[in-house]
């Protein structure tokens, strides 16, 4: 643009000189010196006109270059906008995954609280059952003591049989009543024991259903975490592949700059391969890149094993699992930034 402004200034100067020369031609010059000066000015005018034409051509070519660069800038801005939209979508996806994880953690906490409450109820029922059994045992012991006392009284009455026949009859009737009371007491105790056993069985069945529901929820959470880790692993691998391809494309462009097109075509014709295959041959043999790829594969394998160990570990493990997933997400974010930077430089 600065060269364009300079050329415009020079063009205006040339036009001014042309106008000045035209005015000088309009004035009559009776002397030969004036004619000579007129010819010189005409020559200068022709030179100025040629220079002006040349500068105009240059200005037109510069305008075309400026238009091409503007078009290129608009294309790059469109690509940047698209990448920003992708980044925004990925951030929203991460936020959704975090909210889902938080909801699952809250559900798990609620399930654990419900399980603890049911366990306390079972313990209370067992204690109540034990208390009832102890009470029945005490009552049975008391009844047995009474029976023993009545038997002693019976033996005493039998000892005095000849003297107290009437008392013996009364004692026998009392013994009959006591036995009836004992029978009723035993029947009542049996019914209470049966009812308590039925209630305990119902409580245990309800607890088993709750445990099965909790187990299903935990299984769903494990499936979700495994799917999330697989998707993260796959996404990171894809980004690494794209970065390697972008680096290779950059290397191919650098190779194009270092070698002339005629040399590359000559080498490709000698090797009987295409120019693109020749670029790939030039890029092969990078031992450092191979070692880096192997190290990344080992790290991914260790990360997946770490996630599996966390899922198989005892509670609580949510914070460790969150740290491991955030580590992979940060790695993915760095890879996305690196890939965006490579794509900008490549373009």
How would you characterize this protein structure?
Residues 1-17 have a biased composition (Basic and acidic residues). The protein is mainly α and 347 residues long. It has a domain at 211-345. Helix content is 93%, strand content 0%. The protein has helices spanning 2-26, 32-159, 165-258, 261-271, 275-283, 287-312, 318-346. It is rod-shaped and about 195 Å long.
Report mean pLDDT, rounded to a whole number: 78
Biggest sheet, in brief? none
Low-confidence stretches: 256-260
Strand content: under 5%
End-to-end Cα distance, whole Å, is: 24 Å
User: Which structural class should the secondary elements be placed in?
Assistant: mainly alpha
The total count of strands amounts to 0
Count of separate DSSP helical elements: 7
SSE pattern, N- to C-terminal: HHHHHHH
User: Helix amount, in percent?
Assistant: over 70%
Shape: rod-shaped
Q: Rounded to an integer, what's the Rg over CA atoms?
A: 51 Å
Protein name: CNTLN protein
Coiled coil: 59-188
Region (Disordered): 1-37
Keywords: Coiled coil
């Amino acid at each position: 643009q600065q060269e364009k402004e300079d050329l415009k200034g020079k063009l205006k100067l040339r036009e001014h000189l042309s106008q000045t020369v035209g005015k000088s031609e309009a004035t009559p010059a009776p002397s030969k010196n004036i004619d000579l000066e007129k010819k010189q000015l005409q020559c200068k005018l022709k030179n100025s006109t040629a220079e002006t034409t040349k500068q105009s051509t240059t200005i037109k070519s510069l305008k075309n270059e400026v238009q091409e660069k503007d078009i290129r800038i608009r294309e790059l801005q469109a690509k940047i906008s698209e990448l920003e939209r992708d980044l925004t979508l990925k951030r929203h996806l991460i936020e959704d995954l975090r909210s889902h994880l938080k909801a699952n953690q809250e559900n798990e906490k609620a399930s654990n609280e419900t399980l603890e409450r049911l366990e306390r109820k079972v313990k209370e029922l067992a204690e109540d059952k034990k208390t009832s059994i102890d009470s029945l045992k005490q009552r049975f012991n008391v009844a047995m003591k009474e029976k023993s006392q009545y038997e002693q009284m019976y033996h005493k009455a039998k000892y005095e049989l000849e003297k107290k026949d009437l008392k013996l009859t009364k004692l026998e009737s009392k013994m009959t009543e006591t036995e009836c009371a004992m029978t009723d007491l035993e029947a009542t105790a049996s019914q209470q024991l049966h009812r308590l056993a039925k209630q305990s069985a119902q409580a245990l069945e309800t607890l088993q259903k709750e445990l099965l529901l909790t187990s299903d929820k935990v299984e769903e959470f494990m499936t979700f975490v495994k799917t999330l880790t697989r998707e993260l692993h796959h996404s990171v691998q894809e980004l690494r592949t794209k970065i390697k391809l972008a680096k290779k494309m950059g290397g191919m462009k650098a190779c194009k700059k270092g070698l002339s097109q005629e040399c590359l075509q000559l080498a490709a014709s000698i090797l009987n391969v295409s120019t693109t295959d020749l670029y790939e041959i030039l890029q092969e043999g990078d031992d450092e890149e191979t070692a880096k790829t192997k190290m990344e594969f080992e790290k991914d394998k260790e990360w997946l094993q770490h996630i599996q160990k966390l899922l198989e570990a005892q509670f609580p493990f949510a914070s460790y699992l969150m740290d491991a997933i955030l580590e992979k997400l940060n790695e993915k974010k760095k890879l996305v930034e690196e890939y965006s930077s490579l794509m900008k430089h490549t373009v």
